[in-house]
Design brief:
With 141 residues, the chain is mainly alpha-helical. It has 7 helices and 2 strands. A two-stranded antiparallel ribbon has the order 1-2. Strand 1 and strand 2 form a beta hairpin.
Length: 141
């Protein structure tokens, strides 16, 4: 029995490295990354304050499902269960960006940048950051 449980935990851990969260799951993860380990009540209240109106039972069920998927861990040592993200913020955001890049721009970063620059919503500050980054990349080569 122990080896089966160990195997399933390893499976969940490996799977979490390639898991792309759905929009509602990402909203929960962002709150936990920002505020740290939290109760369902805290996450629910923050969702309602900052993002959208949802029922408490919906938040609870979503976080339970995320725990089953291996996206969250639940600490049950206290009366109030505390949830923590298993998925790392930087890796998750990189994976989301990679999937977006491949699905929308066939993996072409230059096509993404051209679309970004042509959207007329880029501030001078954002454009300067891009120029600085490109200049730095040129120097590094």
């Amino acid at each position: 029995m122990i080896s089966y449980l160990h195997h399933m935990k390893a499976y969940k851990n490996n799977r979490s490295h390639t898991m792309v969260p759905a929009k509602s799951e990402l909203e929960v993860l962002k709150l936990l990354w920002k505020h740290g380990p939290s109760t369902v009540r805290f996450v629910h209240d923050k969702l309602n304050e900052e993002i959208k109106t949802v029922q408490y039972t919906s938040t609870l069920k979503l976080m339970q499902v995320m725990t089953e998927k291996g996206m969250l861990e639940r600490d049950e040592t206290n009366m109030k269960h505390i949830y923590s993200p298993v998925l790392e913020e930087q890796k998750t955001m990189a994976l989301i960006l990679e999937r977006f890049l491949h699905s929308m721009y066939n993996g072409s970063i230059s096509s993404l940048l051209v679309a970004f620059l042509n959207n007329n919503k880029s501030s001078k500050k954002e454009l300067q950051k891009i120029k600085d980054l490109l200049g730095k990349l040129d120097k590094d080569e």
